[in-house]
UniProtKB/TrEMBL annotation:
Record protein name field: F5/8 type C domain-containing protein
Swiss-Prot/TrEMBL keywords: Hydrolase
Superkingdom as given in the UniProt entry: Bacteria
Gene3D superfamilies found in the cross-reference section: Chitobiase/beta-hexosaminidase domain 2-like, Galactose-binding domain-like, Glycosidases
Domain F5/8 type C: 610-728
InterPro entries, per database record: DUF4838, FA58C, Galactose-bd-like_sf, Hex-like_dom2
C-alpha cells in the first residue's frame, strides 16, 4: 500500500509538471532588460490599414518597454529572430470580424478576418495582455516595464454585434479613439448623408406639395395634414422611388437609405391605409408594404425604415431581404432593464426577429431634455445590450447625447466596451475607468455612481424618462438629503486630486450633473440649503451664496471645456445661465402676489400637480415643463389672483415657457384685468406675443409677459392667456397645443 501511494505521488507530480510545461511551452519573452530578439512582421501585400496596425503595435511596445521592434514584411524576415505576425499571414478561414491572438513556437500571431478586425486584434492584445487603457481621447494609461513576458496564448473572439455605434463626439471627432474602443466613427456609416432617418418630409416637402396635392399626406379626422405620407397613394410611391433613385445616383458609394416616417405619430387614417393596418394588425403594415415596393427597385442597396412608436409592433408581411428594420426603444422606462420594465418592446423585438434577420436597434442612454441631469441608468446598459444580442441584433446604435452630458466620458467608454463584449463585468469596468480616469478621486465618483443607482432602485415606481426632468426625482434619488451627500462626495473627490490640475479639471466636469441638480433644486425653495433667497444677518433677503457659487462654477467649467448645449433642442448653456439670472432678478422683485390664493377658471392638466398655487409659491419654473410650470392643453388659461385686500399696483408680469417640438408654445396674447369685487373687471391691458410662432422660432425659451400701467387700486387680478393653435406645418398638426405659465409678479 505504501509503495502504491509513493508511486501515485510521483505519477501525480509528473502529470502536474507535464501540464505546467504544456501550458507554458509557448510562453514568450518579448522584451527583457531593454532587449528583444523579436521583430514585427506584416504581410508583403499589406494594405495601408494592415501596415498601420503593425505600426500601432510597434508604438505601444516601445511606450511600454523603451524598445523599438523592427517592422518588416514577409520577404525581409530575419531568420535569427522570433516573430510577431500582424495580419492573417497564414490565410486562415476567419470571419470578417473575428480576431485571434495566439503563440506558436515562440512566435506571436495577432490576426483578424479583415483589416478592421486586425486593428481591433492589436488593441485587444495591448489591452487584455499588456494592460494598456484608452479612457478618452488623449487620455491613455500605458504601463512601463523593461520586461514583457507572455504566457501561452490562444484567444479567439468574434463580436456578436457587428456594427457598434455610440452617439458621442468623442468617437466621431477622434477616429483613433473609435478604433481603440472598436466602434464606428460615424452615426450612420454607409448611409446616404441626406437621408438617414425621418425622411418622408424630405421626399415630399410640405412647402412643395401640400397645397397643390393634399391627398399625398395623412388623413387625420376629416383633414389632410403634412404630418406623414399617405402610403397607399400610388403617386406618393412613384415620387419616393424617384427620389431614392436620384439620391443613390448622387451618392453611388452609399449602400443604405432611409425611407421612414417623420418624428410624430400622426399617421394616415384614410380608408385604404386603415384597411391594410387592420389586416396586418399594426400600422407597420402599410409601412412595410410601401417600403418593400421601394426596395424591390433597388435590389443591390439596403432600404432602412423605422419600427418606431406607432410602427413598432411587427406586422404580418415580411420585409424583403434588402429592407433593414430599425427598432427603437424611445418609450421605455430606464429605471430598470428593458426586459423588466418594457416587456412590449422585448416582445416586439422577438416578433420582428421572426420576420427578418435585418434588425438594427436604436437605443437611448441619456436624458435628452436635460443633458446634465443625473440619470442613473448605467446598470441597465449591460442587460439591454445583452437583450439585443440575444435576439440576433447585429447593428446597435446607442444614442447618447453626442455633445457633452452627465459623466460623458465614462458613459461613452462603458457603452463602447459593452457593445464589443456584452458579458464583461460591469462593476469591474466602472472601477477600472473611475480609478484610471479620475485617479485618487475615482473612489468617490464610483461611490456616487453606486449611491445614486441604489437610491433609484429603492423606488420601484419611479419612471426614469428620456424626456424627463430632475424635478421629478426631488423626492427620490435627488432628494435634498441625497444631493447634499453627492455634493460632499465630489468635495472629497476634488480634495483628493487638489494638487493634480489636469485630474481636478476632469472631476469638476463630472460634477456638473450634481451642480445642475442643485441649481434646479434651489428653484423649488426646498430647504434652507436649497433656495434662491436667504435672509442675511439684518433679515434682508439676499441671493443664496450656494446658488451664486454653483452658477459661477457652471459657467466657468462649461466655458473651459467647450460645453455649449443643455439639451437636444439646442438650448444653450448661455441661454440657461441667462434665464437663471432672470429668475434671480424676478424672485428679488417686490411681489404682493407671493403666497396669495389663486383660482383657475379654466382647467389645467397634469403638471405642477394641477395646483394653481404654483403661480404664487415662489418656486420658479426652469427650461423643462416638468419644473413647476402650470400647464393647459388645448384651452386658454384663465386664473384669478386674490391679493387679500385692495392694493395700489402698476405692474403685472407672468412667465411662459416654449418648447416647440413638444407642442408647448407662447400664448398668442395675455390680457390682465382687475376688480375690487371679483365680478366687475377692468381691462388693464394686453401683451401680444412678441415672438409669434414660425418654423424658425426658438425651440426652447422663456418669456416674461410684463404689463406696466397707471396705478390702479384693485384686489382681484385676472389673467387670460390665449392658446396658440398648432399650425398645419407643425409635426403635431391636428393635436392640441400647451400653455405653460409660472409665477405671477404683481407690484
Amino acid at each position: 500500500m505504501k509503495i502504491f501511494k509513493s508511486n501515485f505521488r510521483i505519477l501525480s507530480l509528473l502529470i502536474i509538471l507535464l501540464i505546467f510545461t504544456s501550458c507554458n511551452r509557448d510562453g514568450i519573452e518579448l522584451v527583457h532588460d531593454g532587449q528583444t530578439d523579436y521583430e514585427i512582421v506584416f504581410m508583403g501585400n499589406a494594405t495601408e490599414s494592415q501596415y498601420k496596425s503593425a505600426e500601432i503595435l510597434q508604438h505601444y511596445l516601445k511606450e511600454i518597454s523603451g524598445v523599438e521592434l523592427e517592422l518588416v514584411d514577409e520577404s525581409s524576415q530575419d531568420l535569427n529572430k522570433n516573430k510577431i505576425y500582424v495580419g492573417n499571414i497564414k490565410g486562415e478561414d476567419l470571419k470578417q470580424q473575428e480576431i485571434a491572438i495566439r503563440t506558436e513556437n515562440k512566435d506571436l500571431y495577432i490576426l483578424g478576418g479583415s483589416d478592421k478586425a486586425t486593428q481591433y486584434a492589436v488593441y485587444e492584445f495591448l489591452e487584455r495582455y499588456l494592460n494598456c487603457r484608452w479612457y478618452a481621447p488623449e487620455v491613455e494609461k500605458i504601463p512601463v516595464s523593461k520586461i514583457i513576458d507572455l504566457p501561452a496564448l490562444d484567444y479567439v473572439y468574434t463580436p456578436d454585434i457587428t456594427t457598434r455605434t455610440v452617439h458621442s463626439r468623442l468617437f466621431y471627432d477622434n477616429p483613433d479613439y473609435a478604433e481603440q474602443q472598436k466602434v464606428t466613427r460615424e452615426s450612420f456609416p454607409t448611409y446616404v448623408p441626406s437621408a438617414r432617418v425621418h425622411t418622408f418630409h424630405k421626399f415630399l416637402p410640405e412647402e412643395k406639395f401640400y397645397k397643390s396635392h393634399p391627398e399625398y399626406f395623412a388623413l387625420r379626422g376629416d383633414q389632410r395634414l403634412p404630418t406623414q405620407l399617405c402610403l397607399t397613394n400610388p403617386e406618393v410611391l412613384a415620387i419616393v422611388k424617384d427620389s431614392v433613385a436620384s439620391l443613390f445616383e448622387q451618392y453611388p458609394q452609399s449602400k443604405v437609405i432611409s425611407v421612414s416616417q417623420d418624428d410624430n405619430q400622426q399617421h394616415c387614417q384614410c380608408d385604404n391605409c386603415s384597411k391594410i393596418d387592420e389586416e396586418e394588425g399594426s400600422a407597420s403594415g402599410t409601412m412595410i408594404r410601401f417600403v418593400n415596393e421601394v426596395a424591390a427597385n433597388f435590389p443591390d442597396k439596403m432600404i432602412s425604415t423605422l419600427a418606431y412608436q406607432y410602427t413598432r409592433k411587427p406586422c404580418k408581411t415580411k420585409p424583403l431581404e434588402n429592407v433593414l428594420i430599425t427598432l427603437t426603444s424611445i418609450e421605455c422606462d430606464r429605471s430598470a432593464p428593458i426586459a423588466e420594465k418594457c416587456g412590449d418592446f422585448a416582445n416586439d423585438l422577438v416578433g420582428w426577429g421572426k420576420l427578418t434577420q435585418n434588425i438594427r436597434i436604436w437605443d437611448y442612454t441619456t436624458q435628452f431634455t436635460n443633458f446634465f441631469a443625473p440619470f442613473p441608468n448605467i446598470h441597465t446598459l449591460q442587460p439591454n445590450i445583452q437583450l439585443f444580442r440575444d435576439n440576433n441584433a447585429k447593428w446597435v446604435f446607442e444614442q447618447h447625447s453626442n455633445n457633452p452630458s452627465e459623466l460623458f466620458e465614462l458613459r461613452s467608454y462603458i457603452t463602447a466596451k459593452l457593445l464589443w463584449n456584452p458579458d464583461q463585468n460591469l462593476d469591474a469596468l466602472l472601477t477600472d475607468f473611475t480609478t484610471g480616469y479620475y485617479e485618487e478621486a475615482g473612489i468617490y465618483i464610483k461611490e456616487y455612481i453606486d449611491e445614486i443607482h441604489a437610491k433609484l432602485m429603492e423606488d420601484k415606481d419611479f419612471f426614469l424618462f428620456l424626456y424627463g426632468d430632475p424635478s421629478e426625482a426631488f423626492s427620490s434619488y435627488l432628494s435634498p438629503e441625497m444631493l447634499s451627500k453627492y455634493s460632499q462626495l465630489f468635495d472629497d473627490a476634488e480634495k483628493a486630486v487638489a494638487k493634480k490640475p489636469e485630474i481636478l479639471a476632469r472631476v469638476k466636469v463630472a460634477r456638473l450633473g450634481v451642480d445642475f441638480a442643485e441649481l434646479e433644486a434651489s428653484r423649488k425653495n426646498f430647504t434652507d440649503r436649497y433656495r434662491l433667497l436667504i435672509p442675511n444677518d439684518e433679515g434682508k433677503k439676499i441671493i443664496n451664496p450656494l446658488v451664486t457659487t454653483l452658477l459661477d462654477n457652471f459657467k466657468a467649467i462649461t466655458a473651459k471645456n467647450n460645453i455649449t448645449l443643455m439639451n437636444e433642442m439646442g438650448f444653450t448653456v448661455t441661454e440657461y445661465l441667462a434665464n437663471y439670472m432672470s429668475a434671480l432678478e424676478v424672485i428679488r422683485m417686490p411681489n404682493v402676489a407671493m403666497g396669495k390664493k389663486v383660482v383657475t377658471i379654466t382647467k389645467p392638466k397634469k403638471y405642477a400637480k394641477e395646483d394653481p398655487m404654483a403661480l404664487t409659491d415662489g418656486a420658479l419654473g426652469g427650461s423643462s415643463f416638468y419644473a413647476n410650470w402650470l400647464g393647459y392643453e388645448g384651452n386658454d388659461m384663465e386664473v384669478v389672483v386674490d391679493l387679500g385686500e385692495p392694493m395700489d399696483i402698476n405692474t403685472i408680469s407672468l412667465a411662459f415657457l416654449q418648447v416647440t417640438n413638444h407642442v408647448v408654445f407662447f400664448p398668442e396674447k395675455v390680457t390682465y384685468s382687475g376688480s375690487l369685487d371679483n365680478e366687475h373687471f377692468e381691462n388693464f391691458g394686453t401683451i401680444n406675443n412678441p415672438f409669434p410662432l414660425t418654423k424658425d422660432s426658438k425651440v426652447n425659451d422663456i418669456q416674461f409677459f410684463k404689463l406696466n400701467f397707471e396705478k390702479r387700486n384693485t384686489r382681484y387680478i385676472k389673467v387670460r392667456a390665449t392658446n396658440t393653435q398648432t399650425p398645419y406645418w407643425h409635426h403635431a398638426a391636428g393635436l392640441p397645443s400647451w400653455i405653460f405659465a409660472d409665477e405671477i409678479i404683481i407690484n
